[in-house]
Amino acid sequence: MTNSSALSSARTQTLIGRLGEIRTDWQLDEIRALFALPFADLIYHAQRVHRANFDPNEVQVSTLLSIKTGACPEDCAYCSQSIRFETGLKSEPLMDMEDVLEKARVAKANGATRFCMGAAYRSPKPKQLAQIVEMVKGVRAMGMETCVTLGMVNSEQARQLKDAGLDYYNHNLDTSESYYKEIITTRTYQDRLDTLQAVREAGINVCCGGILGMGETQLDRAQLLHTLATLPQHPESVPINQLMQVEGTPLHGATKVEPFDFVRAIAVARLLMPRAHVRLSAGRSDMSDETQALCFLAGANSIFYGDKLLTTENPDENHDRDLFERLGIRGEVLRTEASCRRAENAEAATA
Ligand code: SAM
Ligand code: DTB
Ligand code: SF4
Hints:
Number of strands: 10
Number of helices: 13
Largest sheet: 10 strands, parallel
Bound molecules: S-adenosylmethionine, 6-(5-methyl-2-OXO-imidazolidin-4-yl)-hexanoic acid, iron/sulfur cluster
CATH superfamily: Aldolase class I
CATH topology: TIM Barrel
Helix content: 40-55%
Radius of gyration: 20 Å
Mean pLDDT: 94
């Protein structure tokens, strides 16, 4: 797959001139042209747009917990938790509330500001959702942001989660619509979009991204980012995962992503969705510190912290602390509604 840009030089100039604007009318050929920029130009523009919207030395820190593991009826070709593949994973039922809260306490003590609870469901049943609603309330009461990823939800389920105070719902599109069918056959792209709409309409922040390294082309990557950046409203959080290859899954042995291509995808996500937190998500344990530093330079400003993702490994916590220190990165502090209002009032008073 080549990166050749089909834009005229006039359109390229206009495209570059408009970078930084919040747009939901991106054209696919514009996105392909961004991918095709010389690496230094792409990183320069991404860093410029990043600085206009965020403190470049702050990274949001989330911790993940698998609250219900394995035996999932779906057939996502990348996943350790599908019941269809022999991955050797031990299934675990929905965790008890107290055990979840204890993990959240530890995550908070280690500096995480958001606690993300993942469950291997196609869609949660009413009794399961009722238990998860209580977990959301409990974690929130500890002063952390909450995120859950539970598979498909409808408007009523999204409303229950919103009423519990849920801050973010993670639901990834994973790849382009056309490549999706090669990866998952038990649900459609439209199913994913319907859940995203239900979550958005309930007033919950949307966390939606994808996975690189599943055998997709550069065009699939551009199409995935195009879909995300042309949703009626950009997701607040955009996780870019690198496939964690799991033995026994169909994608074990897939060709790995070229690190510069991974960095390019981060930079393009930053340019398309200037105010979103772009998360350097799964896959950091297979990346060099230098690649991760380039990702931060390209505009990534969120990570998962803790030595486990859901079922696979993440870098050791000491290593991450050391990496932050070596790069002069600080964990983003939680800006609660009350503290934002106080800051706004103080600003208005001195204006
Ligand atoms: N079952 C729910 C669902 O699919 O929406 C929630 C849990 S699922 C594990 C959450 C997301 O993790 C998936 O949508 C996928 O993007 C990501 N993911 C799962 N396995 C992965 C892997 N091996 N490597 C990278 N990302 C993965
Ligand atoms: C996301 O985009 N990545 C996280 C989170 N959202 C739920 C999950 C990564 C899972 C990696 C494979 C595993 O640990 O099982
Ligand atoms: Fe199930 Fe989610 Fe894994 Fe797909 S990604 S098999 S839906 S847990």
